[in-house]
């Protein structure tokens, strides 16, 4: 049986590969949204949103559909949702929002295809989590194709530099994401802390 440490070590070393935008990604999201709604407790699951690069038409991306799910209670999510998705083959992690062990924690799932390749990342958070700002980032990139191209170029450069280190890849693009999120909040007239 794989320990949690072994599981984490395995998933963070998986390849970071960029592909051109696939117009099928919105349909891939929709199928998974319907699946989640059909098998998860309705009293826990609220909004289900497509975010990340696969949600931005034309943007270079890892071929993994990111899904943001609002849950009413994370402790209940651990107890009631995680076993359902794990039984279906999803990898489950109780993940810190920042760093190695920085709260708040949230439920994160990886769905894979028959070949073991990642197809979906599912982030389950409560309504107050900062993760919802990622929808502003998504919408800003859609509204500003030049910024989306800049982000795509950065992602390509970073994926080449950090081909088998997902943590380094993610950390390297964080400054760009934070900067554009601040711009997006200003653009959409949302408060910045």
Commentary on this structure:
With 193 residues, the chain is an alpha+beta fold. It has a single domain, classed as Beta Polymerase, domain 2. It has helices at residues 4-12, 25-39, 74-87, 133-143, 145-161, 166-187, and strands at residues 45-51, 65-71, 91-98, 102-112, 118-125. The longest helix is centred in the C-terminal third of the chain and has 22 residues, at 166-187. The model has no long low-confidence stretch (mean pLDDT 91). Helices cover 46% and strands 21% of the residues. The protein has a 5-stranded mixed sheet with strand order 1-2-5-4-3, sandwiched between helices. It is globular.
- Cα radius of gyration in angstroms: 16 Å
How much beta, percentage-wise? 15-25%
Structural class: alpha+beta
Profile the largest sheet: 5 strands, mixed
- Give the tally of structural domains: 1
| Percentage of residues in helical conformation | 40-55%
Reading off the top of the CATH hierarchy, the class is best stated as Alpha Beta
Which homologous superfamily in CATH is the superfamily? Beta Polymerase, domain 2
Cα separation of the termini: 44 Å
CATH fold field value: Beta Polymerase, domain 2
Mean pLDDT: 91
